[in-house]
Records
---
Amino acid sequence: MGAFMLYSLRMLLMSVHFILAGMIGILIGLCRPFNPDNSRLCGRIYSLPAMRILGFKVKAEIKDLLEHQRSCVIIANHQSNYDLFVFGGAVPARTVTIGKKSLKWIPFFGQLFWLAGNVLIDRGNSQRAKKAMLATTDTLQHKDTSIWVFAEGTRNKGRGLLPFKKGAFQMAINAGVPILPVCVSTYINHMQLNQWQGTELLMKSLAPIPTVGLTQDDLPALIEQCRNQMQACIQALDEQLMQAR
C-alpha cells in the first residue's frame, strides 16, 4: 500500500471512529449527565481505537498521575488536536477538563464534552471566563474531582512550550490543591501517518507540587517552577527517543 493510500485510509477510519465514539459518548452522557467520571470513559473510547488507527505507540510512566491525590489540578503540554487521543487513555477517575466554549459546536464531540461535566470557557469574554474559572474552586474543594488543563492555553505545534496562562495556577492556589504536571514527548514533528512503523511517544507524570499556604503573590514563581520542570522533562523525553532511533 502506497504512502498516500495509507494516510488516506487512516484519515477515513479516524473520521468514522470520531463519529461513532461521539455517539457512544453522548449515550453515556445522557445516561449519567455531568458525571465527572464520564471524561475518563469517553477519553478511553476516543483514545484506544484511535491510537491503533494512527499507529501511535506510547510508553507511559504515569504512576504519580494514576495514584494522584484528589483533588488536584493536572497540567499538560498541548501540541495538536491529536492530544485528545494521546492523553485520552491517561485521564484518571473523576477528572474533568477545561476547554473553549466553541468546542460545543463540534458535532457529537461538543455535546458529549458538555454532558461529561467539563468546563466551557468563553475566552472572548474575560469576565465570564474569570467567573467560570473561579467556580472551579468549589469543584476542587468539595466534589472529589480533579481538573485537567492545557496550561499553554493553545497548541504549540511542536515549537516548544508556550508561556503558561495563569488560570490553572490561580485555581490551584484558591483551592489549596496540588498541581500535577504531565508531559508527552514532542511528536507532532515526527508523525509517521503515511508509514507502517507509526510514531513512538513517551509520556511521564511528575510529582505533585503543593500549593497549600501560597497566595496570588506566589503565582509567578509557581508558574515558573512548573514550566521549568515540564520543559526539562520534555527535553529529556525527546533525547531518550532520539537515542533509541
---
Amino acid sequence: MTAPQLPRLRHPEKAHRPDQAQPKKPDWIRVKAPVSEGYKRTRDIMQEHRLLTVCEEAGCPNVGECWSQGHATMMIMGEICTRGCTFCNVSTGRPNELDVFEPGRVAHAVQKLGLNHVVITSVDRDDLDDGGAEHFAQTIRAIRHRSPDSTIEVLTPDFLKSRPGSLEMVVEARPDVFNHNLETVPGLYPTVRPGARYFHSLRLLQRVKELDPSMFTKSGIMVGLGEDRQGVLQVMDDMRAADVDFMTIGQYLQPSPKHHRVDRFVAPDEFANYEKSAYGKGFLMVSATPLTRSSYHAGDDFAQLRAARLAKLGLA
C-alpha cells in the first residue's frame, strides 16, 4: 500500500521559524470579499488561458476591486520562487521549466480583457542564466503585437545572479513603465529580503534611466515592518538620486504566522505625510495609502504620470 503524499509545503524555508502573532487589522485596512460579475469574468479568463496572477499568489487585499474592473497583474514564469523573502506569500522552491507558449497566452488574455494598461510581474528565477529577462521581453513583444494600443508596465526581479546584459534585454523591449520594488529600508534587508541587495536594486533602477531616459521608472516599499520615518525619507532620497519617477508606499500585511511580523499598522494620516514629503522631493507621481500596492490603480496612475511629465516639461 502506497503511503499518502503530504501536500507540498508552500514555504519550506519558513517552517522552522517561530510563529509570529498576527495583530487584528484596524478598520481602515479591511476590504470586502470579491463577488462581482467583473471579478468572476476576470477570474474565468485567467483560468481559461492558464495564467497566474500575483493578485492571488501574493494574497493582495485589492483583488476584488481590481478584478471587478478587469485589471489583473499577470505573473509569468511560474508560481514557485527561488527566493524566500520573509514578507512574501509566493511559494518557494525549485521552479518548473519555462512555458514557451506563455507570452502568447498572456497577450491573448490582455486582448480579451481589453486592457488599456497591463502589468506583468514574475517570481525570482535565479535558476535561469538571464533571470527570465528574455521571457519578459518576449511577453512584451507578444502584447505589443496583439494589443498595440495597450501600455505595458513590468515589475521585474533584481537580476542579481543573472549574466551581464539581462536587464538590457527587458529595456530594449520598451515597456512603458519599468518597476522594481526596493520593498523596505536597507537596514531591514537581512531579515526581510535576505536574498537581495539594497544598493544593487537601487542601481538597477538607475541603470534603466541610463539605458532609456524616456522610460518611466517606478519603485515601492512597505511600511509597518519595523522601519522608522527617517529611514523611509532616506529611501525617498535614494530613489530620487536614481531618478525614479513614481513611488508607492503601502502597509505590510502578514500572510501567515510564519512570515515577518507586523511591527505596527501605520495610520492614514502618516501615509498622507509620506505622500507630501515624496512630492516635495520631486517625484512625478506618488501613491501612499494603507492599501497601496505596486499595481493598484496602475492604469489611472500611468495616465497621471504621463500628464505630470508633460506638465513638468511645459508641454501640457
---
Amino acid sequence: MQSNSTLGHVILTIALALVPAPAFAIDAALLPRNLSPWGMFLGADIVVKVVMVGLAVASLATWTVWLAKTIELRRKGSLALQRTRTLEGNMTLAEASARTGDARDAVAQLIQSCAREAELSGGILDDGLQERVALRLERVEAAMSRQIARGTGVLATIGAIAPFVGLFGTVWGIMNSFIGISESHTTSLAVVAPGIAEALLATALGLVAAIPAVVIYNHLVRGIANYRALLGDASAQLMLLVSRQRDHCHFRLARAAE
C-alpha cells in the first residue's frame, strides 16, 4: 500500500509539471519596472521618441505664442482705444497728427497716413480727398491686421496635425509590440505591455498639444477681431474729422461771400 501511495504522488507531481500554465500567468520579473512617462519615453523606439519630442516642442510653441500674442493684443488694444477716444474730441487733422509725433502704433499710422494725403492734396478738402483718405486707411488697416495676426497660423497648424502625429506614434508602437510577439513566440503581457504603453503615451501627447492649440487659436481670433474693430472705429473717426473740416471750410467761404 505504501509503495502504491508513493507511486501515486510521483505520477501526480509529473502530471502537474506537464500541465501548461494559464495564458495570463506571467513571470513578474519579466514585466517592465518603470512605466512612468519618463521611463516609457526612455524605453521607446527611436521613431516614437522623435514623435514625442516633436509634440512636446509643438506644445511649448503653443504656449509661447499664447503668451506673446496676449501681451501684444492687450498693449496695442489699450493704446488704440486711447487714441480713438482722443479723436472723438474737437480737434483738427493737423492737431491729431502733431499729437502722435513719431509713434508707430496702428492708430498713429492711420492718422499720419490721413494727414500725409491731406498734405499731398494741397489742403483742398473735396470729395476726392475723402476717397483717397478712405483708400489709404483701408490699406493701413489691412497691413496692421496682418501684423497682429502673425504667428497665429502656427496654432492652427498644430491643432490640425498634432493628433495625426500622435496617431502615427501609436501605430508605430503597436506595430513594434506585434513584432515583439512574433519574435518571442509568446503572447505574454511582458512583451506586449511596453509597446502598448509607449503608443498610448504618444497619443496622449498628441492630444495635449492639439487641444490647447485649438482653444488658444479661437481665443486669439476673437481678440484680433476686437482689435480690427478698434481700427475700424479709428478710421471712421478720421473720416468724420476730415468731413467736419471740409464742412467748416465751406461754411467759412459762405460767410465770407455774404
